[in-house]
Write a structure and sequence with these properties.
D-Maltodextrin-Binding Protein, domain 2, two-stranded antiparallel sheet, LysR_subst-bd, WH-like_DNA-bd_sf, about 50% helix, about 20% strand, about 325 residues, DNA-binding, alpha/beta, rod-shaped, single chain, disordered C terminus, 7-stranded mixed β-sheet, Arc Repressor Mutant, subunit A
Length: about 325
């Protein structure tokens, strides 16, 4: 075989080499001495086996089997081709075993990176459901801001990521898995809690706030929304690295905060925080799953992605990948 045939850029080699099913049939005929018995062993009809054998002979340009009323015997050329087929089938079996081992290694672990809101308020339920499907899969979760999550996925340090920011890097593919909105919240004793009318967006833009760090999805969405109203202030009231820390500071009366509705639902219900309506400000955002561009999620990662969406939407989206 020449070097150009080994590379086979146009697929000519694949057209010249018989498929594995035809080689299996030839091996069975050699072993059983009968095309009919070979067909039964392989679970195909005798006419189908005869047609496959004739196609194989036409493809190779030589007679492989000598048929008679007493059975089927290999020709001299058939014996040579059978030996070649044996080697190919052994190599194919090794290939299949190796591929199954790789899939098993892939399915034995799942590395997930997620932004804080998703990691704290959505992923626990998804991962519980995933464990029921893949009890043998070890799952590791790295929580960080959206920028860090995107970097981890792009670098191959996570199999699947979840972000809340406005943009997705070109190195990643993404799918929207849900919608969220940010709320302005204050402790019940804050003056804003007693307002009867929505807070003007310009007033919010001029007020130092309790904020997540730069790079978080929450911060990206808020900064983009406030830019049109002259803000945000250059220096936040406090800049904290977790949603829980920002929420705790707000509950303690340190000042106004802007957090996901998911994160403050319990505090609002228990009246530990009050939501402040803001006029003319859109704080809605998309929650996205991200993965390396051109590499569809597979195994446990694919199943986790399906669990994040409504059943019908998830199936349609995954079929389109």
């Amino acid at each position: 075989m020449t070097g150009s045939e080994q590379r086979d850029p146009g697929g000519a080699l694949s057209r010249r080499v018989p498929d594995l099913g035809a080689m299996e049939l030839l091996m069975a005929v050699a072993r059983l001495g009968s095309l009919g018995r070979a067909a039964r062993e392989l679970g195909i009809s005798q006419p189908a086996a005869s047609g496959r054998m004739r196609a194989l002979e036409r493809q190779l340009g030589v007679a492989l089997v000598r048929r008679s009323t007493g059975g089927s015997a290999l020709t001299e050329e058939g014996a040579v081709v059978t030996e070649w087929a044996r080697r190919v089938l052994e190599a194919a079996a090794d290939f299949d075993a190796g591929a199954r081992a790789l899939r098993g290694r892939r399915d034995s672990r799942l590395r997930v990176a997620a932004s804080m809101t998703v990691a704290e308020y959505l992923l626990p339920g998804w991962l519980t459901a995933l464990h029921a499907r893949h009890p043998g899969t070890a799952v590791s979760l790295a929580a960080g801001n959206s920028v860090v999550v995107a970097q981890q996925v792009a670098a191959g340090e996570a199999d699947l990521g979840f972000v809340e920011g406005l943009d997705v890097p070109a190195a990643l593919d993404a799918a929207v898995i849900g919608r969220d909105r940010l709320l302005v919240v204050v402790a019940p004793g804050h003056p804003w809690a007693a307002r009867r009318r929505p807070l003007p967006a310009a007033e919010l833009a001029a007020t130092p706030l309790l904020l997540r760090e730069e790079g978080s999805g929450t911060r990206q969405v808020l900064d983009a929304a406030l830019t049109a109203h002259g803000g945000p202030p250059a220096v936040p009231l406090l800049e904290l690295a977790s949603t829980t820390a920002v929420k705790s500071a707000a509950v303690g009366g340190a000042g106004p905060a802007v957090l996901s509705e998911l994160a403050v639902a319990d505090e609002l219900s228990a009246h530990r925080l009050a939501a402040v309506p803001v006029a003319g400000l859109d704080l809605r955002r998309a929650l996205r799953a991200v993965w390396p561009a051109g590499h569809r999620p597979a195994g446990p990662a694919r199943d986790l992605l399906a669990l994040t969406r409504p059943a019908a939407g998830a199936k349609a989206a995954l079929r389109s990948m």
